[in-house]
Design brief:
The chain is mostly helical. 43% of the residues lie in helices and 0% in strands. It has one domain.
Length: 126
């Protein structure tokens, strides 16, 4: 039997609170539960592709680098809003937080990029 449980973001949109949420979910991994953080890694259409790519490089380094310890990865996520490249990826944080929750649920272990594409980079807004 499969069970799907949807968890909403907290109204506070506070990174530390969402890391705690992910940490609470960690034991589910040991039970074989798949935890998916669904969102958009970048969600800005009014910045250049190069600025978004700069953010993506930072994000990939934080989330996938095997040289970043779990403690450092958590701290980088806590400090992410102060990262200059963060604003290039997000006007608001709610599209970023599912990745934060999933990373915490994974014990801050490095992830892997499975798919990457700027599929909306061609859209122009007047």
């Amino acid at each position: 039997m499969s069970v799907v449980l949807q968890v909403s973001l907290k109204n506070s949109l506070n990174i530390a609170e969402h890391l705690c949420l992910g940490e609470v979910l960690q034991p589910l991994r040991r039970e074989g539960v798949l935890i998916i953080g669904s969102g958009s890694t970048t969600h800005r259409f009014d910045v250049s592709d190069s600025d978004r790519r700069s953010f993506m490089e930072w994000f990939h380094d934080v989330m996938t680098s095997k040289t970043v310890s779990p403690e450092k990865r958590k701290q980088l996520l806590l400090d992410s809003r102060t990262e200059p490249k963060f604003a290039a990826g997000h006007g608001r944080i709610e599209h970023f937080l599912p990745s934060v929750v999933a990373c915490a649920a994974a014990g801050y272990q490095p992830g892997a990029v499975l798919f990457e594409d700027f599929w909306m980079s061609h859209i122009k807004f007047d």
